[in-house]
């Protein structure tokens, strides 16, 4: 049986939220431009991270491995992360986003969740969760690149 007390949310750490919001903006800027240095500056040297990206499977360690990931992103994708919702639990701050842009010059759209764990003003850990990718033809995914963009319409967004 699941004991809800094992998973009871903690009050939002406001300082962590401020850092996470600034880091998320730097993430979006990097995704749109391919210039990742501002986001990488938010990463802790002893970072751990997980993302569903070919060539980076499993739990990754170190700021350099994340820098390698984002340099890879810079070579294949340009994306806008449109923030739809924030989920916070203490110093764990999650950003639900509608992302749209290109992968290898093919249009796509996707629901993504990026979770940052903030410690001492830096991202100590992050996890990316991807929904499904639409509209990239033979690359991956299916359908219209805008399919799913209205998932948050119930919130007036």
Spell out the blueprint of helices and strands.
Elements lengths: L13 H20 L3 H4 L2 E8 L9 E2 L1 H14 E13 L2 E12 L2 E14 L2 E13 L23
- Named CATH architecture: Roll
Residues in helix, %: 10-25%
Indicate the mean pLDDT.
Answer: 89
Largest sheet: 6 strands, mixed
Order of strands across the biggest sheet? Answer: 2-1-6-5-4-3
The total tally of domains equals: 1
**Approximate shape:** globular
Report the structural category: alpha+beta
Structure overview:
With 157 residues, this protein is an alpha+beta fold. It has a single domain, classed as Nuclear Transport Factor 2, Chain: A (Roll). It is built from 3 helices and 6 strands. The chain has a 6-stranded mixed beta sheet with strand order 2-1-6-5-4-3, covered by helices on one side. A hairpin with a 2-residue loop joins strand 5 and strand 6. The termini are far apart.
